[in-house]
Amino acid sequence: MPGDPVIKAAGLTKVYSRGAEEVRAVDGVDFEAFPGEVAAIIGPSGSGKTTLLNMIGCLDNPSSGSLVVGGRQVFGAGPLSERELTAVRRELFGYVFQKFYLIPTLTVEENIMLPGAFYKAPGARDAYEVMKLLGIERRLHHLPGQLSGGEMQRVAIARALVNSPKVLLADEPTGSLDSRRTDEIREILRGLASGGIAVVMVTHNLELARSADRVLEIRDGRVHKAK
Ligand SMILES: Nc1ncnc2c1ncn2[C@@H]1O[C@H](COP(=O)(O)OP(=O)(O)O)[C@@H](O)[C@H]1O
Ligand SMILES: [Mg+2]
Question: What is the domain extent for residue 196?
Answer without folding.
Answer: 36-59+91-226
